[in-house]
Structure formats: C-alpha cells, structure tokens
Amino acid sequence: MTFKFINNLESLTAVCQQLIHSKYLTVDTEFIREKTYYPKLCLIQIASDNIIVCVDTIALKNIAPLIDVLYNPNTTIIFHSARQDLEILYLIKGDLPQTLFDTQIAATVLGYGNQISYAKLVEQLIGIKLDKSHSRTDWSKRPLDPEQIHYAADDVRYLRNIYHIMRQQLKDRNRLHWLDDNSATLTCATTYNLNSKNIWYKIKGAGKLHGIQLAILQRLAAWREELAIISNRPRRWMLKDQIMIDLAKIKFASLENFRLINGFKDSTIERHGEKLITESRQAEKLPEKAWPKIKNSKKISKQQNEIINTLMSLLREYCLQQNITPSAIANRKDIENMVRGETDIPLLQGWRNEIIGRYLEQFFKSRSTIIANQK
C-alpha cells in the first residue's frame, strides 16, 4: 500500500492521474469552522485500492485536478457521514458528486445503530480500535506531524474495507436500493442552500413563540444570517439565539428595553441596536397572513398520543425482527405527522412504505375509526 502526502501542484497532478480511473474512492476531510461561518478546508484524505493520499489544502491553493477526480461520474465516492464533507465540496465546486455511498447511512439499514461513529464501525466490522488522540487537532496549523497525518489517513484506510463489507451485506439482504432516497438528498443542491428567510425555524425556542413574535424572529434571524455570511463569522457571534427569542417577545422595540435583556451587551446594542429596531418594526407592519407559522403546531390529543405510542412499538418490533435501526424507517415526528394526516413523509414513500409504512397507516386508520365510533 502506497502512501503520499501532497503539498504541491505537480505532485497533485501526478497522483490524480493515478486516481482518475478508480472504480471507487474513499474520502474524508479535515476542516475548522469554530471562528468562521464557512468551513475552512485543511486536508483531504483519499484512498483507492492501492494508494492513500493526504492533500494539504492549506499549502495548495489550486486543487482543480483533485476536483476532477472526485466529480468523475464513473467513480463511486465513499464517505462516512457525508453531509459536512459534501457541503465543503459544494462550496468549492457549486455542484455535488452524483455517485455516493455513505457508510453511516448504510449502517442504519443494516442495524448497526443510528449515527454510529466511524471508529465504532471499524471496531465492530474489522476488529481494529482506532487511536482518537488527535480528534481535537487544529488542522489549520502547520507543519502537521507524522502522527497527525497517520491519524488522518486512517479515516480512509479502513473505510475501504467497511465499504466492501457493507455493500455485500446490502446486496445479500436486497437493501442496496434503500440508500437511494438518502443519496438523492445528499446530492441535491437545495440541501446546502440555506434560505435566510427560513433560518428562524432552526432557532431553539422558536416553537414557544406565536403570531407577530414569529414574524419579528423571522426578520431578525434573516438579518443575523446575512451579517454572518458577509463577515464570515459564526451566527452566534452576531447575536445569541436566546437574545433573538427575547427580542421577538418585545412589543415595541427600543434601545432602552434592549438593555433589560439578560446577556445583551451594550457594545452589541450600540453596534446593531438601530438596525434591530428597524427590522422589528418592519415585521410589525406585516399583515397577519404574512406571519410565519410553526408547522404542525396543533397539539396531539391524548387518544392520538396513545396511537402514536402503539405505532412506535410496532415500528421497533418490526425493526428488531428485520435487524434495521428504527430511525432508518421513521422517528416519532414522522409518526406524529402521519397521525395528523400528512402523507408527504418518507415513511409513506418508496421502500419504507412498501415494507412497513402502509401497514402502520392501515393500523392507524383502523384505530382512528374505532375511536371515532366510540364517541
């Protein structure tokens, strides 16, 4: 097995000529984003059948030859937990590789557990316990020592073995096509294009607001997101979530009542206070029909909750029998949505609907009919 550490364009071009015709490649990235909005790529690790490569993206400003390799439609790109790696590639290329295999997703449909770590999967399938002493490494610092490089290389070294084992297990159980829906989501650009007008929905505590409060939160959250993007700084550095929630609750925004909010620094008020007042007042002018709404905010009744608990038990029992991690099929929120009458949910589509979704729906409808007749 050949190993190469690449930190110049000439070497990168040469090694990419070796990789370009690979049937598959295992890929991982090392990045930092604690102080930035966008991740800063520091290292890309790649392995084929006969070579492992670590590409120093700090030293190399141009990695075009490598991008050509990763976007070769004839090559399957294998990740473990692909989401953040693909986000980085999307920021570089503005597009996504289309032929993917995510071993973390595969693990759920094979019953290894939900969001299982790479290290745990290596230990379970190959019997090797990985050294995690460099898990907190600042990958932007140079030079990297040999132990750090070896640690990074391990992330793709054993991923090859895992891929072959899992792919065969999926074929044996006729579950290979079960990954298609997840792969389609991962390779869709909309997965990585955040709409600043919708970012309010992810703010912790938003579910406790209502009416005009949500309209104010939406405006403030969009402003914060755009400011974070422009300055390339974490959104929490602009304004913390709890302060956003407190601001949304204020009926008439002013610098004076801003100072009553716990943790709202005077320096932040002086810098952004007037803009926050403007955004709040613009939101207050919106007609009620323009206010955002929390999806599925209607409370679940006691009887509905009993049905949901039963459906969850049936789901778990089925998954236990079929050796599938339940979250690969549905979570409680999916079941709640089905009970509310929604049909546009993964549980009622594709292979999930075929193997269990339709049966859970039939059970739910029969129970609902019984309850309705009892009233």
Walk me through the structure.
- The structure is a single chain.
- The mean pLDDT is 93.
- The protein is flat, with a radius of gyration of 25 Å.
- It starts with a strand and ends with a helix.
- 50% of the residues lie in helices and 9% in strands.
- Strands 1-4-3-2-5-6 form a 6-stranded mixed beta sheet, with helices on both faces.
- The chain has 3 domains: 2-191, Nucleotidyltransferase, domain 5 (2-Layer Sandwich), CATH 3.30.420; 196-290, Orthogonal Bundle (DNA polymerase, domain 1), CATH 1.10.150.80; 302-374, DNA polymerase, domain 1, CATH 1.10.150.
- It has helices at 9-19, 64-70, 83-93, 103-109, 118-126, 146-157, 159-172, 180-186, 212-231, 235-238, 241-249, 255-258, 266-284, 302-322, 332-339, 350-374; strands at 2-6, 24-32, 40-47, 51-56, 76-79, 100-102.
- By secondary structure, it is an alpha/beta fold.
Q: Which CATH C-level class of the largest domain is it?
A: Alpha Beta
Q: Kindly identify the CATH topology of the largest domain.
A: Nucleotidyltransferase, domain 5
Q: Which structural class do you get from the secondary structure elements? A: alpha/beta
Overall domain count: 3
Low-confidence stretches: none
Give me the number of helical elements: 16
Name the strands of the widest sheet in spatial order: 1-4-3-2-5-6
Kindly state the mean pLDDT as a whole number?
A: 93
Care to count the β-strands? 6
- The appropriate CATH architecture of the largest domain is 2-Layer Sandwich
Question: Distance between the terminal alpha carbons, to the nearest Å?
Answer: 71 Å
Rg, alpha carbons: 25 Å
CATH superfamily of the largest domain: Ribonuclease H-like superfamily/Ribonuclease H
List SSEs in N-to-C order.
Answer: EHEEEHEHEHHHHHHHHHHHHH
Tell me about the largest β-sheet. Answer: 6 strands, mixed
Global outline: flat
